[in-house]
Every structure is written in C-alpha cells, then in structure tokens.
Amino acid sequence: MKFVKILIVALSMLLVGMVVGIMGIKKAQYNMQMPTVSEIRDHKNNSSTLLSTDRHAVYKSRSSAVKVLSFSLVRDLFSAATGTYFTMGDRYFVLTVNHGVPGTCMYTKIVVEGEFLRCKEFIELNSYDDYVIIEVDEIPKRTPVRIDKDVPRGREWIKALSLMNRVYYTGYPNETGPLTLAGKIVGYGPGGMIYLHAYAWSGSSGSGVFTSTGKLIGYVLAVEVGRSEYGANILEDVVIIAPAYNVAWDKIL
Prior knowledge:
Blueprint: H1 2-32, H2 37-40, H3 52-64, E1 65-72, E2 77-88, E3 91-96, E4 108-112, E5 115-118, E6 121-126, E7 131-136, E8 145-146, H4 147-150, H5 156-160, E9 166-171, E10 179-188, E11 194-197, E12 208-211, E13 216-228, E14 231-243
Parallel strand pairs: 2-8
Antiparallel strand pairs: 1-2, 1-4, 2-3, 3-7, 4-5, 6-7, 9-10, 9-12, 10-11, 11-14, 12-13, 13-14
C-alpha cells in the first residue's frame, strides 16, 4: 500500500513536471514569434514606463482619434483634420474644428484605418469657438469618449488646467499618423485658450487633448505664429488649445 502511494505521488509529480515543461516550451515559442502589425498597433500597446493613469489617457487618445476629410465644391477647397469620437446617450459623434470642415455633410467623411464613413448630420457648426459636432454611426474600430464622465465638471477644471500638467493627444499632422504626442500646459491666452509646449502641424487641428488622468480638456486649434525681421515664423512647439467647456454639448440632447 505504501508503495502504491509513493508511485501515485511520483506519477503526479511527473505529470505536473511534463505540463509545466510543455507550457514553458509553448511560452518560449510564443515569445520568439514575430508579432503582427495589428498587435504592434493595438491601442493598448502603450509604454510600460508610463504610470497606469497615463497609459489609460494615451489609450483614450489613440482609440478615439479619427481623420476628418472635407471638400467644398463651391470654394474648391479640400481640408484634412483630426476629430475625437464620442458618445452621448445612445448616439455617436465626432468633434473637430470648424475651419477643417469647409464642405457640406455630404462631402465630409470620417476616415478610420482606410475606411470612409459617412457624416449623418452637422449638429453644431460654431465658427466663433471654431468647432463642429458631426453625428456619425457607431464606429466599431474606435472607443468613444464618454462626455458625461470624461469632461471635467465645475471646480474640476481648476485641477485639470493646472500649469505644467501633462497632456496627450493623437492626430494626423501633415496627414501622417495617427501620431500620439505628449506635452505640458505652459500658459493661458485670451478667451480661455490654453497654451501647450508640444508639437502640432496642419492636420493636427481638432485633436482631442487629454490630461494624464484621462480627462478631455479641449481640442487642438492652431500653432503659435511669431514675427521677426524675417517675417512670420511658425512656432510648431507652442500649440493653442480651445477649452472643451466652450463646446455646447447640450445641443445634442
């Protein structure tokens, strides 16, 4: 009887060893495999050196960014900008800049990974605060921002807009990208405008800007322009952000 118990224990240990060995071999084989392009580009593939909150903010930025293309037949003008995909209730929208949408809804398309998606309706065209709210169908390849949860409320804005806060945004500068960029709040301008030390270029306009805690605080509006004895000089590392509290979110309700 004692011999049988010893035999059972030995066989059990042998079986466990075989299972562990096989799992180790499979894991080693998996780790040696080259990843696919889609695995590398996955929205969750963010630097492990970031804090967990920052990683989540970067994920929000990347997973909600879309490209916006618009063409005006009347003005013979084509524009490319960036938009932020968001939801309210059971409807879906894209927020972008007004100056990036010269055409009608029919001639405005949302581009996601090479796929052209239709504009259903312009909910709000605001030339003063320079933004457009576009209603769209649900976009399965993107994760929408929740306006009721992801935009600061009331006194939260003080902390969200504190000087030297880290921020992230994802856009299509020069129609390249999407590129995710980091920056810091370095100052404030007229009308509540926010200045970032970051980078932007034509095509970045409309990018949603997120704090390191994942709050949507605004959208890229423009880069600063300076003047010298040589004329106008673009300061692409001083980025002007329009605050999200200027957006009339209630127009959707």
